[in-house]
Amino acid sequence: MNPETRLFIDGELVPAASGKTYPNISPVTEEVVGETADAGPEDMDRAIAAARRAFDETDWSTNHAFRLQCLTQLRDALREVEDEFREQIMAETGATLFTCGEMGPQCENPIRFMDYTLETLPQFEWSRDIGETQYMVKSRRLVEKEAVGVVACITPWNVPLQINLAKCVPALAAGCTVILKPAPDTPWSATMLGRLVKEKTDIPAGVFNVVTSENPAEVGDQLVGDPRVDMVSFTGSTAVGKHIMARAAQTVKKVFLELGGKSANIILDDADLDGSLLSCLAVCYHAGQGCAIQTRLLIPRARQAEVEDKLKTFFGFIDYGDPMSESQLMGPLVNAKQRERVLGYIEKGKAEGARVLLGGGAPAHLEKGYYVEPTVLVDVTNDMTVAREEIFGPVLSVIAYEDEEDAIRIANDSDYGLSGAVWAASEERALAVARRIRTGTINVNGGNFYAPDAPFGGYKQSGVGREMGPEGFEEYLETKTIAIAV
Ligand code: NAD
Question: Which domains are delineated in the chain?
């Protein structure tokens, strides 16, 4: 591995001004795999100044053809180092090889997804003529789209490359300049982008900056509060999202938030039980560290015994321990703190009356790594903590419902509204229920929304705005109406 350990500020790969670094720890071996620059306020200030200057004083925001050329260079560079990137992502996230390939969002797919932006950019309608108006002064009007300005992209650790690219690529394509602040646990998925931009593209100095820090609150608050920053594009927990929204309000910044979820997988009474229950294994995907994973399983009460038997069989298929195995869905959690948090939720579930059908602790057979056993909690009611709060671990909460109306009510009885799934014997029935669920995405009878042209985001406390698809590009644009007297 040859990870990039430096910050990328104003076109230069640099150590932190203080010279400080912090360790990057493998969730699999619990050992230090390398160091990364630990930025402080002085570094963040330089990055913001550079991004502001690059936006105000270069033609980056207006030269569409040049941006396309630069982003094509970046895409080509990413393809060249895909294997190296995969190795680094696995080292810092604990993701398995399986989730880094074509069946996952960790490495291969996010790089492929860049093609969508590169293909749509040349066709984008930057200006449209909406004709004349007679109101007050006879005028001809143009509606023009312009870059928002300097964008702070703040990202989490669970799928770092996917989210770094899903934010930075459309922001840069729109003509914005960017300061990327990744999560402390996954710095290399961001710093490597800085190296590629520096060495393989003509992107001008200051247009793209990467600032890593072990103390996100310090440089994060600075970034969000700075009046030179026009927009914050954030993915992370709802708690930090609320803090960011409140802080950004002081300077009335545009805020785009992708937050947590507690999605429901609704199995209607006539659904194929085998197919629908197999989909529950997704709760172990990347050890449950996915915002859109369906962590509440809603089943008809009359079929509860049958469901429990099948879940025991299916969860028995889950094997974990070696992230290099090509069939493994599940690696460890990202760090010791997350493991303690997940184990704490399981204990809370038991204390509130849930029954542990499977798992429930740290696996005895693995001495190293922040693993939690695949865990199924049954007899859960929707008012329990394990049904209301995001656990972010391999834990499924099974809730029985009385009838279809009850299932819809339970699914929608959540502070979150990110995703979900519905299964029924007919597409028509499943679709009718899907349309009544208050979430930003929903899968029907085993469908899957994840693709570069499909907008993704949340209702309610799961967020504001959409990532990917045309909506994900337009987040980074302002709209200007020009009226010309005729
Ligand atoms: P987190 O909220 O703890 O951190 C997210 C980012 O915010 C990190 O870069 C962190 O360093 C930064 N941060 C923390 N305090 C800050 C502050 N005061 N100012 C500015 N930035 C600050 O989230 P996490 O633990 O890294 O990630 C897990 C969470 O992310 C889960 O809740 C998950 O649901 C959510 N998530 C959501 C989506 C989505 O698209 N909706 C996708 C992935 C993850």
Answer: 7-259+463-485 (3.40.605.10), 263-451 (3.40.309.10)
- Judge whether 307 and 271 are in contact, CB under 8 Å: no
> pTM for the full model?
0.98
Among residues 4, 92, 258, 390, which one is catalytic? 258
Backbone φ and ψ of 54, nearest 5°: -65, -35
Two structure tokens written together for 150: 């300097």
Question: Which of 191, 215, 240 should be mutated for ligand 1, with most atoms under 8 A from CB?
Answer: 240
The two beta strands, 459-460 and 355-358, are unpaired
Distance in Å, CA 160 to ligand 1 centroid: 11
Distance 380 CA to ligand 1 centre (A): 27
Give the torsion through C-alpha atoms of 270, 271, 274, 278, to 10 deg: -150
What percentage of the chain has pLDDT greater than the value 70? 100
Residues in the chain, total: 486
Per-residue burial over 304-338, b = 16 or more CB atoms within 10 Å of its CB, e = otherwise: eeebbebbeebbeebebbebeeeebbbbbbbbeeb
Produce one character per residue of 117-149: b if its CB has 16 or more CB atoms within 10 Å, e if not. beebbeeeeeeeeeeeeeeeeeeeeeeebbbbb
Per residue in 108-151, pLDDT (tens digit) is 999 999 999 999 999 999 999 999 999 999 999 999 999 999 99
State pLDDT tens for residues 287-320: 999 999 999 999 999 999 999 999 999 999 898 8
Count CA atoms closer than 13 A to 346's CA, side-chain side. 24
Helix, strand or coil for residue 208?
strand
